[in-house]
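May I ask you to review the protein record following this short note?
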Amino acid sequence: MKKNLKIYLASPRGFCAGVKRAIDIVEKSLIKYGKPVYVRHEIVHNKQVVEELKKKGAVFIEELSDIKDTTRPVIFSAHGVPKSVPEEAKQKKLSFVDATCPLVSKVHRESEQLFKNGYDIILIGHNNHPEVIGTMGQLPKGSIKLIETVEDVSLLDIKKFSKPIAYITQTTLSVDDTAKIIEKLKEKFPKIKQPIKEDICYATTNRQLAVKSIAPKCDIFFVIGSRNSSNSVRLVEVAKNAGCKNSMLMHFEREIPMDVLKNSEIIGISSGASAPEELVQNLLNIIKKEREVTIEEVVVANEKVIFKLPKQLN
């Protein structure tokens, strides 16, 4: 007889509006322009999504110089790109569709406005993440100072800031960790200007809230998502910090730890903003073969956000 297992399913989980829009842009471009369509960088950070789009005719590249057929359109990923990329596309006479998430574009516009108004800008984010590269690439080199940790704040030299200071953030950070960094920034620079509306996006915040409400009750917590997905990796950290030390990222190549599962009584499951729901259902089906399962969905917010597609695809 199979042993009972309680599963808490986090909601919201999975695709956010920006990810849905980006995937739709690739699929609609393939319908409108035919195959192949080039995509600069992974459209969203999920291997399964990328593989599915490849099957449909998308060709993923890292740089515009990798494009073999310049008569074909190229799509910029949801993470956003430096200004130099559309400029290079125009020089090469490439047609392009920008799938940057509107909430990332908001941070881009914010940084430009701050720069124009004479601010020194500090960006809280992860070095080398495509979103951070894109945001820093909106302004001349050296205009934005990147920090990643609370320790980085103490290393900032006040003397090197000659103008008023403002901060912006990556959209997919840990809400709690970022709050600590902001607190330190405000201690060091009491007059620092903050964003009118928080930069960490609604989807990141909601997914972290859902995980936080479940994790303390769980013996093990699974987050479905890719290793290069910032918001998925943050969810694992949130689950651990909330009290479930045995939390893990279930990525493309990871086997389900059946030995751990056999000894668990309560588990939690969520998925990153770029992970398809079918991966959650696949995991549940595998678990159901081993255990007698009771599932409770824990809903912390109802997301109704929809982003419009670019005009050229309507």
